[in-house]
Amino acid sequence: MTRPPVRRLIGLLVGLAFGLSSVLVRLTVLQVREAEAYSTLALEQRLREIPVPATRGTILDRDGEDLALSLDAAAVYADPRYVVDPVGTARRIAGILGVRPRDIRSRLEREGSFVYLARQVDLRTATAIDRLGLPGIGLLDESKRYYPAAGLVAPQVVGLVGVDGVGLSGLEYQYEDELSGSAGERVLELDPRGRVIPQGIHRDVPPTPGHDLVTTIDRALQYRAQLALQDAVKRNRARGGTVVILDVDNGDVLAMATYPWFDPNDLSSLSPRTLAHRSRNRAVTDVYEPGSVNKVITAAALLEEGLMEPRETIRVPDSLEVADKTFSDAERHDPMDMTLGDIIAHSSNVGTILVADRLGSVPLAQYLARFGFGQRTGVGFPGESGGLVPSVYEWWPTSMASIPIGVGIAVTPLQMAAVYATIANDGVWVEPRLVRGTVDAGGTFTPAPPPGTRRVVSEDTSRKVTRMLVYAVRAGTGTRAEIPGYQIAGKTGTAHKPLVNEAGYSERLFVASFIGFLPASDPEIVIAVMLDEPRTVYGGIAAAPLFRSVALHAIGRLRIAPGEPVRLPPHRMPLE
Amino acid sequence: MSAPARAVRYAPRPARRPAPRRRPAPHRGRAAFLALSGLLVGAMVLGLVVLNVRVTQSSFRLDELSDRAERLTRSVEMRRLSVARLSSPARIAREARRLGLRLPPPSSVVYLHAGEHSFRSGPRGTEAP
């Protein structure tokens, strides 16, 4: 009989006890001390957080018609590490997306864990790709911006949104905070196969949609203005053009067109340079020398200061030497007696220079500033220019001749339109505005702050100037703007373009413009039109017909009634 | 002498035997208890299962409804885009041209001011041109 191996048994027991104790300790550590950490880690593996993008607010015209709206879309991405057959995968995806397979394949063969294959894909296409069940291919929620009227309704004003859904230009950029809203989040608990666990964690933080933006643009009028502008540019073989229509009472911009424009739904066909050129809202961002349309400021200042009466006449030659420069009228004529009305109606440069001399430089500079030159209008548009008006202390000896006739200063078409709106509005300048207000997700409309106003000249002065402008259309340089049954008050402008990168002005290149309002007795709208480098240089020939065409559409669209007759101002020149 | 009366002896009434206790039927009682308990537990389990099934079904239904709501929302958005495209001035002008419609000449339409007072404001309103 052998002795039991007591020692070995004890040793085994101790070993087992030690081993079990170790397991027990480890279990305790895992289940008690580190339980929460592991539990959280496991939960994190099962949870999937999906960002839910907020719907971008819609941009509407003044009647609530859609100018820009967003729809759900998807981005197609790949994790190249999990793509098993890049060639076959590229072929199948390219077939659905309508692109070349090699473009997709080159992306699938890149190193890294994420690459976009397509952005802003419509949901039908995205679903077709999803159904393929290709390994390594996934979809992300995003939205796509649509512009229902394509390029024919204020593309430069509305602006553009990038692929990331952020505004890049125009109102899309200016009102990014209001339009964008804030993204939400969806949290789901998934099983190892990626299926949703029905009773698992399911948390939704809904996104806050962006506010809708109600603009002052009248869609139909804008469309008609753009067509008329396009037609005028082509007829006059101009480089481009601008139309601005303002509501006299409240400064609402009813239309703001710039040619050439672009289709915001189809940017792929434009080079970045072309897009940059066409997407500028030149009515607000670009300046030009206004030329003779600026003479109204000189006339209004003289009348307001009592330095000239409408009945007074002065002897006006056809040319005048100021400092070392000769200024002349557009047509040669013998010295003739002219009233202020004659000077404005027939756009006499020499007459304007002569009467402006009574005013002096400082008061003229003050009136330019009071009419809004040299400062932004506050319309609320990115990149707005305040114009270029030299300080009165920097004026040249010839400035008192050039500035009264609109040379040597530069303004935006919107600033110039606001000047005429001031005359039309009994001498009160009204801040132009492009946005009427916002509408939140609940449908509550919040109006924009009322536009700022300031009195520039008296009611009496504006009425006198209005009569002169009526005379300019009736018998002056603006006869081609006449509309039977309506009295139009307006003024032509023709200005040489400054040379680029050198001093002086071009002899060949002009800017032709016409700015007016109607009906003259109780103005409702101001229309400013400008053609850049037209073949027929004069504002009265090139721009006045465009004004007439736009005004006809505005009369029909806004149902503008003919006003009471306005008497012509005292004049010495024959009516015909 | 008379013989002493013999005491009438009554036979002692037999002590009332306690009614034999019904011995509880251990097997029947336990079985009933077990059956009842089983029924109760079974009902609870069944209830829980049914409840879970209902919750799961509801969860699926909720998902379905959520998806449906999302689809309908997208459908509304698509229709809104269609309406916006169909009502765009360019399309209407194109359709009008196709139908041979033309804008009236300027002199054929006259717009009139209703005046300061409307017809609702009283007899003076009728004076407005």
Pick out its properties.
heterodimer; A: about 575 residues; alpha+beta; Penicillin-binding protein 2a (Domain 2); Beta-lactamase; 2 domains; five-stranded antiparallel β-sheet; about 20% strand; elongated; B: about 130 residues; mainly alpha; rod-shaped
Protein described:
Chain A has 576 residues and is α+β, with helices and mostly antiparallel strands. Chain A has two domains: 49-97 and 112-215, Penicillin-binding protein 2a (Domain 2) (Alpha-Beta Complex), CATH 3.90.1310; 219-558, Beta-lactamase, CATH 3.40.710. Chain A is 35% helix and 22% strand. Chain A has 19 helices and 21 strands. In chain A, a hairpin with a 6-residue loop joins β19 and β20. With 129 residues, chain B is mainly α. Chain B is built from two helices and no strands. Chain B has helices spanning 26-86, 89-98. Chain B is rod-shaped. The termini of chain B are far apart. Chain A binds chain B through residues 65-66, 69, 71-72, 123, 146, 148-150, 152-153, 196, 198-199, 202, 219-220, 223-224, 483-485, 552, 555-556, 559-562, and chain B through 52, 55-56, 59-60, 63, 74, 77-78, 80-81, 84-85, 87-90, 93, 103, 106-107, 109-113.
Produce the secondary structure layout.
The complex is a heterodimer of chains A (576) and B (129).
Chain A: H1 6-33, H2 35-46, E1 47-52, E2 59-60, E3 66-78, H3 86-97, H4 101-108, E4 115-121, H5 123-132, E5 137-146, H6 155-158, H7 170-174, H8 176-180, E6 184-189, E7 202-205, E8 212-215, H9 219-235, E9 240-247, E10 253-259, H10 272-278, H11 282-285, H12 295-304, E11 313-316, E12 319-322, E13 325-328, E14 336-339, H13 340-345, H14 349-359, H15 361-370, H16 399-402, H17 413-424, E15 428-430, E16 435-439, E17 445-447, E18 453-455, H18 459-475, E19 489-498, E20 505-518, E21 525-532, H19 539-558
Parallel strand pairs in A: 2-8
Antiparallel strand pairs in A: 1-6, 2-3, 3-4, 3-5, 6-7, 8-16, 9-10, 9-21, 11-14, 12-13, 15-18, 16-17, 19-20, 20-21
Helix pairs in contact in A: 3-4, 3-5, 9-19, 12-14, 12-18
Chain B: H1 26-86, H2 89-98
